[in-house]
Amino acid sequence: MSAKILVADDEEKIAKMVATYLEASGFQPILAYDGLQALHVFREHLPDCIILDINMPGPNGLDVAREVRKTSSVPIIFLTARADELDRIVGLELGADDYISKPFSPRELVARVRAVLRRTMQSGKDTSQTELLRHGPVEIDLKKRLVRVSGETKDLTTIQIDILSFLMREPGRVYSRMEILEACIGSAYEGYERTVDAHIKNIRRALGDDSDNPKFIATVRGAGYKFMEQPE
After folding, report:
1. Which of 3, 17, 13, 67 is closest to 37 using CA atoms?
2. pLDDT value for 42
3. Which of 52, 75, 216, 223 could form a disulfide with 61 if both were Cys (CB 3.0 to 4.6 A apart)?
4. In which band, very low, low, confident or very high, does the pLDDT at 88 lie, cut at 50, 70 and 90?
5. With a threshold of 0.85, does the pTM exceed it?
6. Secondary structure (3-state) at 201
């Protein structure tokens, strides 16, 4: 069965153009033209991926993402104007998986959809030698896609789990933002390096970590990030 993709954009012409490209690529698009309709479609159809325009009337894309993230980790791709750098970062902090700036190439958008869906599917299958990854109080069940800190389950999105597990595989090793992007997203688009910071911020918040006095993820200025070696 083809993946269902919710496309929410108040510009009907853009939404229908995206739907045409998605259909040609074997996906099943479902359209919404405002935030309320997007939430209704999400709850009724449970799509496999959501494409959200940030600047919709009524509940905007950020509001819709907040509601979706209360109950679901479905991949979210934001559509945003190039000038909306702050909106892009806020969107990522809300748990979005990707963003693409307007005007955009429909083919690139379809490629992004394929990438997030492939990442989600591979994440569910990838046990990478062991089903459990544990360092100190942090444990990731790679098969069930669960993260626990001192036995307490934490809510992370697919990309956040991928980034955390990537860092945890070699505690103490420093990875650049580009290395994290290429390993966890598969390719690094222009301007993507800054988005790693937003994902790391979300992971820290979920783990109860403090960037100024980190227990788990440390920032190495001018270099990137590392998962800190944990006491036995």
Report:
1. 67
2. 95
3. 52
4. low
5. no
6. helix
- With CA atoms as reference, report the closest residue to 115 among 75, 161, 155, 175: 75
Structure tokens belonging to residue 40: 């209704």
| Amino acid at residue number 38 | A
Q: Give the integer Cα–Cα distance in Å for 9 and 4.
A: 16
Element (H, E) at 21: helix 12-24
Residue 127: CA count within 13 A, CB half-sphere = 6
Sign of CA dihedral 128, 130, 131, 135: negative
How does DSSP classify residue 15? Answer: H
Annotate 130-199 with DSSP letters as a single string. -SEEEETTEEEETTTTEEEETTEEE---HHHHHHHHHHHTSTT--B-HHHHHHHHTSS--TTTHHHHHHH
What are the tens digits of pLDDT across the range 45-62? 999 999 999 888 889 998
